[in-house]
Structures are given as structure tokens and as C-alpha cells.
Amino acid sequence: MMEDWMPLSPNARALFSSMIGDAVIGKSVAESSTENRDGSLRVEPDIQVPSRITDQKNEIQNSVVGNIRSQLNPLSEQKLSSRGSLVERMAARAGFNAPRLKTESIGPNDLSQKQEIQTPCLTVPPDLGPVTLLDSPVFLSDTLVMPSPTTGKFSFAPNGSSRNSTLMTNNPDKGKDNLFEEIDALSFTFKPVTESGYTGAACKVNPSSLSQQSILDVNRFFQQTDFSRSSIQRKKSSDNISSEPRNFDAVGSIAGRSSPLDGPENEDADQRVNADPNVGGGPAEDGYNWRKYGQKQVKGSEYPRSYYKCTHENCPVKKKVERSCEGYITEITCKGAHNHSKPLVNGRSALGTSNALGDMQLDTTEQPGTGFSDHPFWPSVPQADWGQDSVELTPLGQEYCNGATSLPAQTHFQFELGDGVDGSSTFSDVEDEDDRGTHGSISLAYDCEGDESESKRRSLLFLLN
DNA sequence: AGCCTTTGACCAGCG
DNA sequence: TCGCTGGTCAAAGGC
């Protein structure tokens, strides 16, 4: 179903995916990593998504997808329909069967009879119109739109006369109201991060209890990620870009979209959510501070390799990061061992920061101070092992490179092992790299502009998850 | 001012 | 020794 979002920017998709927990995210959640004999880590889909939460997410996501699609031009939709499921393509390329969102029970049984509904997840509840979603406060990116709760005014116009007519659909007011009604009904699943890291517990937070500032922060976040109606419209007007398969964060790879950067073809700088080098293999995504000291085009690699050093004094750790044309990490090689603990971030340890994204992680034992090991996107590495001069780890995964061919590129993480280190026995729990840095949904949390914003974004991610 | 990225040059290892 | 390649340095510039 991911192709349903193709016309959207990767950033938007990443964010949306994070928010609604699409099928692929479900896959991410459902997937667990297994350890191969050779020490590499591979993700395998073999864990079921908690049913209740998944059902709610699917319900919302189906509605959202359907509504968004209804806003897209027919051409894009047709192109989308003509493509196979991304999951299927991934499965074909990666050689595993990714779990699919079951949509048979949603909507008409005979979908083939309806051309406009050729892909799953298109059933839209009649009371949840496009405006419900597109006019959601978090979707509004410009100041011309109607006041919204995110602006602190929280007043809806009696009618939608002042809004963009092209996006208007039936029953706008009802849609908006329903948005909050539904949100309220569903409640957010808020997963707090404690000083010691992710607790694994989830608590419900009634949206009404959120502070105005929090809402404003959420809105600001969406604006920064350009996950807005205006961005969608821009995409509509540029089919040459939007119609191409692009990296899908949630599907993706380490996701730390890495923030999936917008491709070079996308010159709209404000849409670059993850143009930050931190995203993915860049500095900070693992809680440490890195300084790039070199970049080189390596023979045999289609992407330039970046060299990073840990900025901590006397810390010998270096890492090499290969990034695709879109900024997705295709390979990370970390060498050395940190001789220091993670720097504090916003009054809390980087560990906490890392775990902000770890709500999909399953019972990962915290390994404070072990570097990547305590990052939700990195496997747990016993301190003793990480203490070696170098550690090598090679989880494999896939990401989808944009570009004309949309060829998949393999994401490759590698920690160089020191002698006597059995990498195969040191890593026990790793997430699907699809959810890691090479894709935006996750990287957003690391795409920090500052401690404050980082903290706010973390909060947002909790809301979205 | 400090830190960062960028990027061309330089260095070392290897065949 | 030479050429190739990967890794690093360091000046310049940006934020």
C-alpha cells in the first residue's frame, strides 16, 4: 500500500507513516531481527502486531490513504494503481515475505470491479473526509489557513469558504470535528521515556490534556517537515517527481531518513526534512557527537563515503557512512570504541533520546554507555564486546533508492570487529533497519535543531506512535 | 567565536 | 617505482 503515498514527498510519507502506522510500519513493528550465524543481523517478519492498536491504526490509515488519494490527480492515481505492492516488490527483492496489511475485510470484496479502488486501504469511512485530515491543524503549514487549535485560537469557521476550494470536499466542518472526535475516542498512545530509557509501557493521553504549547510544537514540527496540504499540492503539480517511486521511510531502512533526504531532483529545500547529515549514519543519531572530516568517492561504490570522527576529546571512534543519492544510508562502518559515555542531550542522556524512538522495540535491555548498543536502532551490544577496539556488525536490509530506476539499494551496517570478538553472539535484538536512520520516520527524532526542538519532536513521535 | 561541513591535497598501503 | 585506492588532513567558508 505504500505506493499509495508515492506522490507525496518522502518526508511527508515518513511522517504520515509514523503517525498512522501503516502496513509497513506494522511490518516494522512486527518484524524482529534474527541473528545469522555469520554475525550479521537480518530482519524477519515473524511477530504479530498487537491487534488492538494495529486495528486502530489501520482504520485511521485506511481512511487517511483513501482521502489523500482522493486529493491526488487521476494520473498519479493511475500510476500508483498500476504498480504492484511495495511490500511485494520488497519481498521480491529482499527475498522474504513481508507481512501485508490485510484489507480483504475492508470495503467491497470485489475490488477489481472498481478501478478507483485497485489498491488496498482505500476504504474511507464516510464521516472522515479528506478535509478531516488535510485540514487537520497539523497539516496546515501556512498562515493563510483557518485558525486551528494549533494556533491557539481553536475556532472553526462555520463554513469552509476561506479555504482552498480545490481541496474542499463535502462536509468540511463535520470532518474537522470528527477528526478530534476520533482522536479523542482513540486517544493517543503515549510512550514516555524515562531517564533510564524507554520503559516499554504505554499510557494513554487524552489530546485534550495536551498543553497548547505542545500542540503548537506539533504544528511547528509538521511545518518543518512540510507535511502539509501545500506540500501535497506542490507534489501534485510536479508529477515528474511525485510519480516516481521514492524512498519510503517507513518501509524503509534504518529509516534515520535517515531521513530520507529528498532526492537531488527535489530542489524545494524546505521539504528536506532529513537533509541533515545527522540523519541516519550521520552524527548524533546514535547519541554521540560526530564531526565529518572527509568525504570521498570510493571506487566500487556508487555513493560517496563520508568519514566521521567522534568529537569527544581523545575518543578514537570513527565511522564511515555511505549515503545514497537521496541521503539514505547504504552502509555504515564504525570503528573503535568510545572511551566515554554519551553526551547528555537536553538534560537527559542520549540514551533517552534514542529510546524516544524505541516504542517499536521489543524488550531491549538497556546497555548504557555502550554506544550503538543502546540505540533502539542498533543491536544491543554487551559492554565488554563494545569495549573492544572495534566491533563489526552487519545487519542487512533494503532501502529503495529514488532516481530514475528506483533500484533498491542495500543498506549495510558494519561495525568492525576486533580480534576475538564474536559478533554473532553479541547482538541480540535489532530492529528492522527499515525503521532506522535511512528513512525519515525515525530520523526525524534525530534531526534536531536543538535540544528543545529535539525534545518536542520526541514528544511528537510519541504522539504519532 | 566556535563548531561544523566541504573539498582538494596529501599520505600510506598494496599490487 | 609507479599507479591505484582508501583514509586523513587542513584550509576555506558557512552557520
UniProtKB/TrEMBL annotation:
This is Probable WRKY transcription factor 2 isoform X1. It comes from the Eukaryota. SUPFAM superfamilies: WRKY DNA-binding domain. It comes from Olea europaea subsp. europaea. GO terms for cellular component: nucleus. InterPro entries: WRKY_dom, WRKY_dom_sf, WRKY_plant. The lineage of its organism: Eukaryota, Viridiplantae, Streptophyta, Embryophyta, Tracheophyta. Its main location: nucleus. Keywords: DNA-binding, Nucleus, Repeat, Transcription, Transcription regulation.
